[in-house]
Structure formats: C-alpha cells, structure tokens
Amino acid sequence: MTAVPDPSATPSSAPASASGGAAAATHATPMVELVDIRVSFGGVHAVDGVSLDLYPGEVMGLVGGNGAGKSTLMRVLSGAQSPDAGEIRINGRRVSIHNPRDARTHGIETIYQTLALADNLDAPANVFLGREKVSGFGTLDDAAMESATRELMERLNPRFKNFKTAVASLSGGQRQSVAIARAIEFNATILIMDEPTAALGPAETAQVRELIRQLKADGIGIFLISHDIHDVFDLSDRISVMHHGEIVGTVKRTDVTTDQVLAMIILGKPPDEVTSEELASLH
Amino acid sequence: MQPRQRRSVGGFSRVIDVDTRLIGLIFGLAVIWIGFNIASDGTFLSARNLWNLSVQSASIAIMATGMVLIIVSRNIDLSVGALLGFTGYTMAMAQTQWIPQGLGLGLDHPLTWVITLAFGLVLGAILGGIQGFVIAYGGVPSFIVTLGGLLVWRGLIFQYAQGQTIAPLDPTFRLLGGGPQGSLGEFGSWALGALACVAIVIGLLYNRRRRASYGFPVRPIWALVLLGAVAITVVLGGVWVANSYPWPGALAAQFAERNNIPIPPGGLVIPTGIAYPVLIMIAVTIVMTHLAERRRFGRNVYAIGGNPVAAVLSGINTRRTVMLTFAVMGILAAVSGAVQTARLNAAVTGLGVQNELDVISAAVIGGTSFSGGIGTIPGAILGAVVMQSLRSGMVLMRVDSPMQDIVVGIVLVAAVGLDALLRRRTT
C-alpha cells in the first residue's frame, strides 16, 4: 500500500486533499497539523499553545511526564475533548472535530490506554461497536461481522481464535489486537495509540511493536504516546517532548540519544540548552 | 470432583451453543416442579395447575423482558408496578367512559378494545419515556427517578380514582386476560405449535447454513438434532398440557346449550388451549429477544452495560438508548396492565402493587447481573416462571402468605449468591 490518504476520510469536494494525497511520503502536506492548540481546566493550562504535525507512514512519539498534556492533546484530536483555541488541519484542510464521530469521518481512530472495549461482548461485536453491520430489515449481520473480524485477525494476529467469547476472558495482547482491529476495520489513516504496551507482557509487547511497524508500512500515520522510552525509540521516526502543557522540542529519532530525550522530559529544555552538568546529574 | 463436573457442563453447553446459566435455570425449575409434584401428590403437574401457572407467570414475565434491558444498561426501574396500575386504570376509564361518551362507541363495540389498548401502550411509552428522559438527559439516577415515579403514578391513581373500582370492562378487552374464552382452543393451539416447530427447524438450519457458508465452526449434527428435538418437545408438550385442561363443566354445559350441541355422557369436554396472556407473553418474548440480540439498539444497550465509556467513545448515542429502554419498559408495563385488568374484569387502585419486586426478582433469578452488561430475555422468562412456581407450589401446600415471602426472599438471594460464586470460579 502507498501513502495515499483514504479517499473516504475527507470529502472529495475538498481540493486540498486531492493535492495532498498525490505527493510522496515525507514531503507531502502533513496528514495532521495541530496549530496552537490550547486546553485549560479551571485555570490550569493542560495544553498551552501546542503545534504538531504528522506525515503518512510516520510514527510520531509523544512523550513527557505525568500531567505533561500528551493525553489531553490527543483527546482533542480524537474528539473526546474540545479545545479552547487552536486549529486542526487534516491533509491541509481545516476541520472541526467535536466528538469521536467527527474524528472518525476524518480517518482518525484512537486506541485508548484503558482499552475502550465492552468486556461483555465478543471480538466481532467490539470491532464493530457503534458501527454494526446490518442486513435487510435492519437486523444485525453477525456472520458478516465475524467473517470480517476473522479476516482482519488473520493479518494482525493469526493465533487469535476466540471469536465467540466475551473479550473479558482474553489476554492483554489479544485485547489489544481487538482494539487495533477495530481501528483498522474502519480504514483509519491516522492512529492515536495511548500506551499501547502498558498492560502487556514481553511477548505481547513484541507482538504489538510488530503490528505498529506493519501499520506504518501500510502508510498509516501514528501518534504514539508512551512512558516507555524504549518503545518510543524503537518505533518512532520523530519524537515530541511535552512538559507542563508545552512542546519542549520535536526531534528526529536518529538525531538524539535516549539520555537527551530523558533530559528533555525531566528538565523541560530542548537538547541544545541542556548543560553537560545537568545531563550528568540525571544519572 | 466439583470443578470437573462444572467444566463438563460448561463443555457440553459450549458444544450445543446454549448458555450454561440457562441450562442451570432449567435444571433448577425441574427440581422445583418435581419436588412440589411429589409433595402435592401429583397436583402440581396437573394440566389445570400448569395452565394456571402459565397465566399467572405471564404478566410478570412480560415486564421482566424489559427489566433485563434496564438492568443490563446499569439502571433500575422501581416504577413498573405503579405504572402498570396507572395505565391499567386509565385503560379501564378509556373503555368504560371516554370512548363510549367521547367517541359514541358502545362498551361492546368491536373497535373499543383496540383503541383502548393502543391508547394504553402509547401512554406507557410516554410515561416511561419521560422517566428515561430525566435519567438519561437530566443525569438523575434511575433509582431516584423511578422511586419518584412509583409514588407519582400510584398517587395519581388514588387521586382520580377516589378508591373506586371500575367494572365491568369491554367483553372483547376481557379476553386479553385469559380464561376459557380467552384462549386459543384445541385446533388453534395445535396449529400454532406446528407453526412454531416449523419455525424452529427452519431457524436452526438457516443459522447453520449461514455459518457454514462463511466457513465458521458449527454445532455437531447430534447437538443440532438434540437442540431441535428438545425445543420441539417443549413446544408440543406445552400445547398438549394446555389442551388437556378442559373448560369447567358448567361453562361447557352453558356453551352446549347455547349452540345446541348434545351433551355426551360424562359431560362435554372442550379443551382450553393456550391462554391469550401466554400468547402475548410469547409474542413479547420473540420481539424483545429480537430487539436485544438482533438489533443495533440491543447491542448498544449491552455495550453501555459492559463499558459505558467505551460505548460513548465508539459513537453510540447512549442517552437516547437509555431513554428508549425506559420507554420500552413503559409499553410492557401497559401490556401487563391490560392483561391484569382484563383478567380481573376490573381496575382496582391496588393493581400492580409490589409487582416491581417480582419483576426485578424474575430478571435477576434469570441471570441478569446488576454490574451491567449481562442478562438474557429467555432467562428472565424462566426466572418469572421459577418465582411463580414457588408461589403456586406453596399455595398448593397451604403455606401461608408471610412464609411464602420469606421463602421467595431466601431463594432470590441464594440464586444470585450461587451465580456469583460460580462466576468467581470461572474467572
């Protein structure tokens, strides 16, 4: 698959999306541009004038301490949080996202830290939650949904076999597969992954990393929020560090060391402002 | 020993693809029935008692199907008994006063019962919907809203009934309550039973064919045949029992006299057949099961119960869905209101008092979980039958009313406790 944005993600009447889609990967119009986004909760600036972009087939690592504003920023993009100010552009075109449904029409899918799955339902029901396939007379087409889910899992996680049991009884990795399958089924071109490996064991973490590489190869743009600096270094093309609601800096992964990124996270300064004494004091 | 046995039951239920809990419930019901039958020297399982049991269970079972959806979405409805009373009373007013006087139709006009019933169902939907609106959009807990509803609807009955009983009711409307005339009769019952058997066979085969066409695993043939055979036996057995209960002798004699039928020696035997309230219950069960399992609405209700946050994030209109569950509950309370007033041939101020407790108990005994997301319509029907069987059996055994309440209360807690224990073991 090439890095062409899904045509269904933006209305075809928009000229910007047509020009953006034809261009090559990293030099194209960004898939996502967040411009000067601000969110405050009762005087606390959770996100304070943040600008960020994402290109097709790119993994953008988003790191920072607790309360740095990473999750709030991503909630803005996924429609779960309305920004107080700022602009969102998808493929160069300004859009307004007020709820998860709006985000979805622009091809944005979120895989939440808490795994937004209905534990009592089976995998196909979760994959199609809120967008169930129906046959004539509006009856749920469970067979078609199970079939589509089986096909997806064949690609994502061939060992997955529990299509008829409630996802509550599945392992963390399997549940993560269901969550990702859910995003993929609806032609997500922009994926937000909030701590995708937080609840997983080593083998399952490796599985999810492999999955992310595959999605990237398919031209999907990914925002990866993680506490795990190794995850971020392993998978990201660029890394953005947030501190107290602001972007400390956005760097290419190949340009920095893990120590430099850690310093950005902890000290809240860009790498060139960090003195060698400060860097040493971290160890 | 114990866990191994449990696992083999679980394995069996997985192969035949039927809920373990439902099998347990059927087993429990069998124990109750056989126990009471032995204790009552065969009276409990007589056609007469079973026919009465089916009619007595119907009104609670109808409402229990709606209560399942309410509880599954992590809510509760305490107002169903009062709502039943209010809609029942209003329907009695409609057919005895408003329609005859307002529309000029007589008490036995063929349209009277239809207009009355439609009016009652719409009223139930509106009142239930109002409660649902306050819960879903107003953010007031359902326990509080429906507790308030209980007081308001019951208070309204007393307010405008002034303690009066409204009777008699429209003769056609009265048939909704059952009784010898309010039943399907011998031929109709067998015809319906045959139709149901055909539907069961077609349904099982269609489902299997569809799964096979996608290459999914299907039940083994023996399980399919077993399931079909059990279902058909239950249907035909039910019809046979209903037809084994004859009209009371005096009524049959009256009927013979009116239609100039010679009375044979030993009296005229007219099989009663399936009572209309039971038919209504079956229809409600089919519609509600379809709604719960085959429609987006039902899927959304279960998703809300399983994970309310996930439901919102996946774009489900959770507020509208919750409001609609209460509107559906209101309609079902009105249906039961019609059945109960018709059966009494009167509307009394105490109609439906404490029914909410029976309805909630039926749903919970039937496997509906208060933690949300879990519960089935057929389970709730069986739960209602279990409750009514206990009461009916104890009446046969001449257990007095306070003792009945004590037993039902203990069974309710024990059933839920056992269920929780088994679930903790499986996870």
Question: What does the secondary structure layout of this molecule look like, with pairings?
Answer:
The complex is a heterodimer of chains A (283) and B (427).
Chain A: H1 15-22, E1 32-41, E2 44-54, E3 59-63, H2 70-77, E4 85-90, E5 93-95, H3 100-105, E6 108-111, H4 123-127, H5 142-156, H6 172-185, E7 190-194, H7 202-217, E8 221-225, H8 229-235, E9 238-243, E10 246-252, H9 258-267, H10 276-281
Parallel strand pairs in A: 3-8, 3-9, 6-7, 7-8
Antiparallel strand pairs in A: 1-2, 1-4, 4-5, 9-10
Helix pairs in contact in A: 5-6, 6-7
Chain B: H1 2-16, H2 20-39, H3 47-72, H4 80-103, H5 112-136, H6 142-161, H7 171-174, H8 185-213, H9 221-244, H10 249-258, H11 276-294, H12 296-306, H13 308-313, H14 318-344, H15 355-365, H16 377-396, H17 401-426
Helix pairs in contact in B: 2-16, 3-9, 3-11, 3-12, 3-14, 3-15, 3-16, 4-5, 4-6, 4-14, 5-6, 5-14, 8-9, 11-12, 12-14, 15-16, 16-17
User: Number of domains in the coordinates of chain B?
Assistant: 1
Q: How many β-strand runs of chain B?
A: 0
- The domain count of chain A comes to 1
What's the SSE pattern of chain B? HHHHHHHHHHHHHHHHH
Low-pLDDT regions of chain B: 1-7
Large-scale geometry of chain B: globular
Cα Rg of chain A: 19 Å
**Second CATH tier, the architecture of chain A:** 3-Layer(aba) Sandwich
End-to-end separation of chain B in angstroms reads 18 Å
Per CATH, the superfamily of chain A is: P-loop containing nucleotide triphosphate hydrolases
Total of helices of chain B? 17
Structural class of chain A: alpha/beta
Q: Judging from the principal axes of the Cα atoms, what is the shape of chain A? A: globular
Strand percentage of chain B lies at under 5%
Q: Using the coordinates shown, work out and report the CATH topology of chain B.
A: ABC transporter involved in vitamin B12 uptake, BtuC
